Amino acid sequence: MADTGEAVQAPKSGDEGGQPRSGNGSRFSGKTKKQRPFWQELPILILIAGLIAAVTVTFVGRPYQIPSQSMENTLLIGDRIYVQKISYYTGEPKPGDVVVFAGAESWNEGYRSIRSDNAVIRGVQNFLSIVGLVPPDENDLVKRVIAVGGQTVECCDEQGRVMVDGEPLDEPYIKANQPWRTDGPNAPFPAGRIFGPVTVPEGHLWVMGDNRAESSDSRAHINDALQGTVPVDNVRGKTSFKIWPPTSLGPVRSQDPRSHGGE
Asked: Is CATH 3.30.300.20 the right assignment for the domain spanning 68-112+138-262?
C-alpha cells in the first residue's frame, strides 16, 4: 500500500546528519578568536593606565605629602592631600583657600632638587612624576590665601589681628601665634609679627600658614621683588581632601576669614 504522507528525505552526500555547512565546508559559520595570553596584554594595559594617570595629573589634580608643621592643625606632617586644578579653570584662588604653589625665586633659597644625579634614574623619576607617583621637581609649598590682587594686608590691629583693607580677620583655623603684648618693656612683642601694609599686585596672592609661629610664608619674603606675594600662575591647585592616613580622611574646607564662615 502506498504511503500518502510526506516522504522523509535522506541526507545528500556530504551532509552529515542534515547539518548545514558553511561555504568553505566547515560546520561552523566562523572561527573562534584566540585570546591573547595575559602577559602579552599586560604592557598594553600598563600603557593605557599610564596615559589615563598622566591626563588626570595634568588636568585634574594630584596627591602631595605635607613635609612640615606650618599648616597645623589643618594639615599635619605626613598627611597626604589631594590637590585639584578644576576649581581654577574658571576662576582664581580666593581668600581662605588652601593652595599648593611653586615657590617664587626668593622662596627657593636652600631648595635642592629631589632628582637623582644618575641620568637613567632621573629619567625614570621624571616619568613617574608625569603619572603622579613621584613629586614634581620643584619647591612646592602649601599655605592659606589671606589676600588677593588689589587688597591691602597688614598686621596688626590693637588685638593683634591681621587686617585686610582695614578690616580685622576672624581666623579660627590658627593653631599658634606669637604672643601679642601692648604694654610692658617688650611691647609690642614680637616685632616680627608686624608687617605691612602691603597692597597685593593684581595676579598675585598673599599667603600665610595656619601655624603662624612655625610658618615661613609671605611675611618672611616681604623684602623681595614681589613683597612676599605669590604669582597666581605659580599655583598648582586647591587642596580639597586629606586622603591619608585613614584617621585624617576628610575634606579640607576653604574658610574666608572676612565672612566668618566656610565652604
From this structure: no
Rounded to whole angstroms, the Cα distance separating 166 from 152 reads: 8
Per annotation, catalytic residue among 129, 143, 215, 238: 143
Rg of the chain in Å (alpha carbons): 32
Three-state secondary structure string covering 203-224: CEEEEECCEHHHCCCHHHHCCC
Instruction: Say which of 31, 34, 70, 216 is annotated catalytic.
Output: 70
Residue 92, CA distances (Å) to 9, 17, 175 in order: 84, 77, 26
pTM for the model stands at 0.78
Instruction: Please give the pLDDT value at position 190.
Output: 67
Length of the chain: 263
Cα separation values, 9 from 16, 17, 18, 78, Å: 13, 11, 10, 84
- The helix or strand, by DSSP H or E, that contains position 168, with its residue range, turns out to be strand 167-168
143 carries an active-site annotation: yes
Which pLDDT tens digit goes with each residue over 17-38? 455 554 555 554 556 667 777 7
Q: What tens digit of pLDDT does each residue of 222-239 get? A: 999 999 999 999 999 999
